[in-house]
Recover the amino acids of this structure.
């Protein structure tokens, strides 16, 4: 309930306190984990863990290993989801190609049958 009160009715968007430059300053290489780290920081911010830049930096420094581990887990989960989606798209594409090939073959046979009669 406390979190809901802080968040209000959902019409206001909070400003992300922890940003890319903070990650770079802390020695975290720019890359795919950044988005997941920032997402975790927004969750912590929304939970009231910190409310200012100094608190965000302290949160990152104090939880660095856990934050990086969770970011890696989230990235791997996103990668697995993307790969699954790619496999599904490939499967659909193969089915469509087979359907098109069958349709073209049927049209060719119909054309042959009409010219033969």
């Amino acid at each position: 309930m406390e979190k809901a009160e802080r968040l209000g009715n959902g019409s206001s968007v909070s400003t992300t306190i922890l940003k890319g430059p903070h990650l770079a300053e802390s020695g975290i290489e720019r890359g795919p984990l950044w988005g997941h780290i920032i997402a975790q920081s927004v969750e912590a911010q929304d939970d009231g863990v910190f409310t200012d830049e100094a608190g965000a930096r302290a949160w990152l420094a104090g939880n660095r290993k856990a934050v990086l581990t969770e970011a890696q887990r989230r990235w791997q989960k996103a990668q697995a989801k993307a790969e699954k989606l790619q496999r599904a798209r490939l499967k659909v594409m193969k089915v469509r190609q087979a359907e098109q090939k069958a349709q073209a073959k049927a049209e060719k046979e119909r054309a042959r049958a009409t010219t033969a009669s």
About this structure: The chain has a mean pLDDT of 89. Residues 78 and 84 are 10 Å apart (CA to CA). The longest helix spans residues 64-116.
